[in-house]
Write a structure and sequence with these properties.
With 305 residues, this protein is mostly helical. Helix content is 54%, strand content 3%. The protein is built from 15 helices and three strands. It has helices at residues 16-23, 27-40, 45-62, 71-83, 89-105, 109-114, 130-138, 143-155, 159-163, 194-207, 225-238, 247-260, 265-272, 277-281, 297-303; strands at residues 170-171, 176-179, 188-191. 27% of the residues are buried. Mean pLDDT is 87; it is low at 1-11.
Length: 305
């Protein structure tokens, strides 16, 4: 009788940041220093990871710590990066923003001024129609996947707000959801739809999740970002939606549909957790809302008397 060979566990591939910590002397200390400073300054974990990943990529390419790379080398690297199709344009931006923060941390403010200025490109977001939302949700057979997408759309939640949502944050008596430490470390309350509450109860009875509404593979950890991104992308493909649908598309659709339903812009601003009304005003350029004719308030003051 032949013995079975023991299964060898596949090692997870190192992330770019982990690789830089391992291969570049001094990068690990710099990485933790950057993490500590960014978190203390109120930056989100995802922003830190984006900056750190981009800086690690530069470090691995050059084989040097950022403070040891000359301005000419950085300029050459950024020039090359801007022409590449991969990494994406966001990688270029994260590299510039990350280096700005890092050089200030290292008290090399003169180097910050030498980095390129990034022009703000104002583009309108992708928004689904209500019919496309129905197709997206209906075509998803997996209950958990459907609830994730419906919840994001029903309350205008960001991806991290969704994955970190806990059962204690679902307030059935007030029909509200508490978002803890959203973007810019802000708490807020958002609407809890009776439809989504019913779906959550059905989902709970089937999956029995603990602590987090959407648990990940590791016990006590929330669902991974990539899992949610994949769920939405695959569901959009199954529904035959040609638009590029992301997690934020559902949030944009939430705001646009509320505006089309007659909800005022300040209420939408509060629901989204925006700090500036100008950010929310973007949806006025997307929503199909009938414009009313201007009239004098004096006419309605006495005209109905």
């Amino acid at each position: 009788m032949t013995k079975r060979k023991p299964k060898i566990k596949k090692k997870h591939a190192l992330t770019v940041a982990q690789k830089a910590c391992k291969e570049i002397k001094g990068f690990e200390a710099l990485y933790h220093s950057l993490e500590r400073k960014m978190i203390l300054n109120g930056y989100s974990e995802s922003t830190f990871k984006n900056y750190a990943r981009s800086i690690a990529f530069l470090t691995l390419r050059t084989g040097k710590l950022p403070q040891e790379i000359s301005d000419d080398e950085i300029e050459h690297y950024l020039m090359k990066l801007s022409k590449e199709k991969s990494p994406s344009e966001s990688y270029f931006k994260h590299t510039v923003y990350g280096l700005r923060f890092l050089f200030r941390l290292l008290e090399q403010n003169d180097r910050v001024l030498k980095l390129p200025r990034l022009r703000q490109v104002k583009s309108l977001p992708v928004v689904l129609s209500k019919e496309e939302c129905r197709r997206l949700f209906k075509g998803t057979k997996n209950l958990k996947h459907r609830i994730i997408m419906c919840l994001m759309y029903s309350a205008g939640l960001r991806m991290d707000e969704t994955r970190r949502l806990m059962w204690k944050d679902i307030d059935r008596s007030r029909m509200q959801i508490k978002v803890n430490q959203g973007k810019n470390r802000k708490d807020r309350y958002v609407v809890l739809s009776p439809y989504i509450l019913k779906g959550l109860e059905k989902y709970y009875s089937q999956y029995q999740p603990d602590t987090y509404v959407f648990n990940g593979n590791e016990k006590g950890q929330p669902l991974h970002r990539r899992s949610i991104q994949r769920i939405i992308a695959e569901s959009a493909k199954k529904a035959g939606i040609k638009k590029e649908v992301t997690c934020h598309t559902l949030r944009h659709s939430f705001a646009t549909h509320l505006l089309e339903d007659g909800v005022d812009i300040l209420t939408i601003m509060e629901q989204l957790g925006h700090s500036r009304i100008q950010t929310t005003m973007m949806y006025t350029h997307i929503a199909r809302v009938k414009r009313s004719l201007a009239h004098s308030p004096l006419d309605t003051l006495y005209g109905q008397g």
